[in-house]
Amino acid sequence: MADMKFPDPHEVEPIPGTEGWQRMYPYHYVFSDDDPNRAKYEKGMFWFYDGLHYPEPMYPFDIIWDEAWFLALSQYNNRIFIVPPAKGIDHRIINGYIYITPLPVENPDDIPKRAEEFMKRAGYYYANWKDLENTWEGKMREVIKQLVELEIPTLPEMEEESVVFEGLGVSSGYKLLNAYDKLIDLGILCWQYHFELLNLGYAAYVFFMDFCQKAFPDTPAQKVTQMVSGIDVIMYTPDDELKKLAKLSVELGIDDIFLKGDAGSVFKELEASDKGNQWLQAFTAARDPWFYVSSGTGWYHTDYSWNDDLTVPLSFMNIYIEKIKEGENIDRPVEQIQRERDSLTEGYRARLQTEEDRTTFDQMLNQARTVFPYVENHLFYVEHWFHSVFWNKVRDVAKILSEAKFIEDVEDVWYLSRAEIKDALWDVVTAWATGSNPRGPLVWPKEIAWRKDCMAKFREWNPPSAMGTIPETINEPFTILLWGITSESMANWAKLKEVAEGDVSKIVGFAGSPGLVEGTARVCRTIAQITELKDGDILISTTTSPSWAPAFKKIKAAVTDVGGVMCHAAIVCREYGLPAVVGTGSATSRIKSGQKIRVDGTSGVIEILE
Amino acid sequence: MTIELLYGVDATAEAFNSMEEPTSALVGNLMDISKYLIPFEECDVSMVSRVGGKCASLGELMKAHIPVPPGFAITTDSYMRFMEDNNLMDKVMKKLDGLDESMVAETELASQEIRSWIDSGSISEMLEDMIAEYYRLLSKSTRTPALPVAVRSSATAEDLPDASFAGQQDTFLWTRGVDDLLDRVRRCWSSLFTARAISYRLKMGFDHSQVQISVAVQKMVRSFTAGVMFTLNPATGDPSTIVIDSNWGFGESVVSGEVTPDQFQVNKIAMEVAKRTVSDKGIYYTTDPETDHVRQLPVDAERRSSQSLLDSEILALAELANRIEKHYGKHMDIEWATEKSLPYKGEIFIVQSRPETVWSQRKAKPIVEPKASAVEHILAGLLRGKKIK
User: DSSP letters along A284-326, please?
Assistant: First the structure.
């Protein structure tokens, strides 16, 4: 390890033409050496690039979720549950890419007292997990309800008479500012909840994995995940609902209608018949909330949900209709998965050498299984359902800015930070109230053009995997599990680099799901492209999400740029018994559609054959 | 499909069992036969003192329905009978009298003389007939005229230094025909008196007259690929992993370390090939089709870096490893071989197996300190953290 060197964050060269990029992001995210104490701290920490969440440079608006979890994760570790040796996770940004570092508790004398608090507080959560999880779901549904009901008011030429005759006392200008504040506040609140159970959930999971890997050093993380993962997690529900709708359309004999493809004409035809209306009724019940599933991770405004473009789920449904008509069973092989999980668990347990270890195994496994549904399910509530509604509410705000000529296109809004949007709205409402001209149109279009150019340059830049100084130990459960920061993974990063520079026909990633196959690669950068997949193709994508599920019926292996053993592609491939290599960093840019490739999901290696 | 069907246990391990009864000339001596010769499938651990560890372990494997090349043990009684018939015991003892472990040159000289007596001794007609008959039956049951066999000494106890390696020195491969077989049997017997064996006994204070030896006569496997496997990972001690080392041809190139073999790791719980390391394999051992002599040859260019086992074979071997581990109730070190183009279905053979010694000798103790609850384990885990450097 000692020979592994990472750059000093203060010595990263700026990209020519992007000078001043720092103003796009929160000022405290910048590495700076103007204060010697802060510079010393930054240099002494180990900063790693959060490619798991951010394969792309950050849009100034989208950083809202990074700020939200910066606060939420850290507070739960350090101020709420008092994780004994780990404080929070600090964040920085460089050239649009997020770097993070876990903070240890420095004074060993603080640890026993923290441990005492932790046992009391975390112990309560672990002991009452299911009740707290139910309460959590209620809170989350309430936040989403408020979000859905939140209206972004437009600014009228003249206020309604009710303002006067009901003595309301506020204007639409005030209401707009207020609605925007409320929108942002709901987002931050939702992320407070996001971590309520997640830190402890991960901890239970991490240390079960740690135990298994101590007892069985060769065991890949995927096997441990398999022992823990449940089959009733709601992540599978959107896909299951889609399958039900496909079956219903075949039962009703209206499946031909869906071949028309375009959602508009499909719905028109459905509405014209009784059977069509029967199907529409089932569809309406299913789409809220299940079609809020995002086409991506949900972290970016560029991730759209099925509800945003119904052509996507409808085209997926055609895949299922086709399979049903071929007589194939499209249901998840739930019983088989359950059997495999049981035999794996029994197999490992039986090979432990002492009774004490079997007791530990049982304790840890039970706890890990208790927390697991939350660890999976929160993703649907927060990243998919909430985020999908949220992005569109921000687009409602953007329409106002666009009408006021602050931005040329609704989608330009993402180049402003949330604070800048608030300022711009002040510009809009004061000018509206006054009857004067706002300054925004002179400022923002020019600034946005420059920001677009900066971001294009950021995309061409290759962020170093880490910066700063490697610590001796890491005690922060997220860092270990989610980002997989271990001595092995760091060596792997070094290896990834070597392979990338040396043998161009080989790509290395994380072994996501075991098995070895050869086949034709099909690169799908967006969810819409998955309709191009042919039976037996190997899917190459940046990432996948539950809304990609139908693709897994067609492919024989999956490769992603982003993700660890817990990512969606890895989990689904294990379910379907397909090999997967995830977190390759660069597969979508290095593999071309039509190439013959070999995917070894057990060792995590992809070879380009021709 | 069961292992039996895949590997044709009927046609291999149990073939000898079902072979025809010995011919009439020997029927009268049936009692005597089992005193001097015992088919592998009748050997077991209780007989180590008569058939030696190697034959006993082959018999144990057969009892667990592991495909083992068929053969028979020539018991220690045969050895004792031979020594008596040739009046050698007293002569040998006299020769060894007065030696001590410091007398290297004298020991060497005595060894040479004793071995020449044994190598040139005559085997009684009765014993010769029995061995010849068993050899004939073995040839017949495997449908190979003048069946090539491996003749190996099978030590009965700690008589020989490095008991686990002793077999290698006294192995005569590709022995064909009765005359050659008898010659090799004598040479196995005489291996009890190599200079190294003598000085080892002197050092350990064993009585030369009490030590005995058995000989294993076993059908040769014309190995297509061969190697060794462990029921745990010898590098990490992980008991959920099976590690298989493999090269083309006979296992000698792997056992001796002359090549870097291919290595396959199997997760024995999920029964998946977890890791494949295909090496550049420079040489292999095979038989000269004319002479049946074992030769070392360079590996053809196209085979050097290709995987020497199919995935299906890797998994079949792993399944055998699991069965062997289960049968013995401990971790094992196993020699195996695959054979292709045989008149019967049998394809994979276990040639030898012995207990794994390195990891198995460590005392089992809890991996982490026991705790009252999962939360306490989580706390302990957090406090421990993950070592990075």
Answer: HHHHHHHTT-BSS-SSSTTPPBGGG-THHHHHHHHHHHHHHHT
The rounded percent of chain A whose pLDDT value lies above 90 is 62
- Arithmetic mean of pLDDT over chain A: 89
Within 8 A by CB and 6+ apart from A51, the residues are A463, A465, A562, A583, A585
DSSP secondary structure letter of residue B158? T
Which chain A residues touch B273 with a CB distance below 8 Å? 516, 602
CB-CB under 8 Å, A360 with B367: yes
Residues in Cβ contact with A222 at an 8 Å cutoff, skipping those fewer than 6 apart: A511, A512, A513, A514, A565, A570, A574
Percent helix, strand and coil across chain B, each to the nearest 5: 40, 20, 35
Statement: residue A338 has pLDDT above 70: yes
Strands (E), chain B: 37-39, 71-74, 149-155, 171-175, 213-219, 223-230, 241-248, 262-267, 272-277, 283-287, 294-298, 332-339, 348-355, 386-387
CB A527 within 8 A of CB A578: no
3-state secondary structure of A216: coil
Length of chain A: 610
Quick one: how many helices (H) and strands (E) in chain B?
Answer: 15, 14
Q: Which residues in B lie closer than 8 A to residue A360 (C-beta atoms)?
A: 366-368, 370-371, 377
φ, ψ dihedrals at B227, nearest 5°: 170, -155
Instruction: Please state at what angle helix A355-379 crosses helix A198-215, rounded to 10 degrees.
Output: 140
Q: Choose among B305, B299, B332: nearest CA to B317.
A: B332
Q: Which of B265, B311, B377 sits opposite A218 (nearest CB)?
A: B265
Q: Band of the pLDDT at A464, cuts 50, 70, 90?
A: confident
Question: How far is A516 from B244, CA to CA, in rounded Å?
Answer: 18
- A32 neighbors A434 (Cβ within 8 angstroms): no
Give the whole-angstrom CA distance, residue A235 versus residue A549: 10
Q: What number is the average pLDDT over the span B363-369? A: 87
| Nearest C-alpha neighbor of A379 from the set A122, A194, A190 | A194
Confidence (pLDDT) at A568: 75
Q: Looking at the predicted structure, is the pLDDT value of residue B14 above 70?
A: no
What is the rounded average pLDDT of the residues A337-362? 94
In the predicted model, what is the mean pLDDT of chain B? 84
Give B-chain residues touching A204 at CB under 8 angstroms. Answer: 374, 378
**Within an 8 Å CB–CB cutoff, is residue B382 touching chain A?**
yes
Strand locations in A343-391 (E): none
Which is more confident, A497 or A235? Answer: A235
pLDDT tens per residue across span A19-29: 999 999 999 99
The confidence score (pLDDT) of residue B9 equals 35
pLDDT tens digits for range A247-259: 999 999 999 999 8
DSSP state of A22: G
Q: What is the pLDDT of residues A96-123, one digit of tens each?
A: 999 999 898 889 899 999 999 999 999 9
Residue B243 — φ and ψ, nearest 5°?
Answer: -115, 125
Closest by CA to B52, choosing from B219, B213, B218, is B213
The ipTM, to two decimals, is 0.83
Measure the CA–CA gap between A313 and A311, rounded to whole angstroms: 6
DSSP letter (8 states) at residue A540: E
Distance CA B158, CA B205 (A): 12
Number of A to B CB contacts under 8 A, please give it.
154
Q: B311-328 and B48-63 are packed helices; what angle lies between their axes, rounded to 10 degrees?
A: 130
- What is the rounded CA–CA span in Å between residue A480 and residue A564? 11
Q: How many CA atoms lie within 13 A of A450 on its CB side?
A: 15
Whether B29 and chain A come into contact, CB under 8 Å, resolves to no
Q: In what order do the strands lie in the sheet with B332-339?
A: B272-277, B262-267, B241-248, B223-230, B332-339, B348-355
| Cβ atoms of residues B37 and B131 within 8 Å | yes
pLDDT-based confidence at residue B5 (cuts at 50, 70, 90): very low
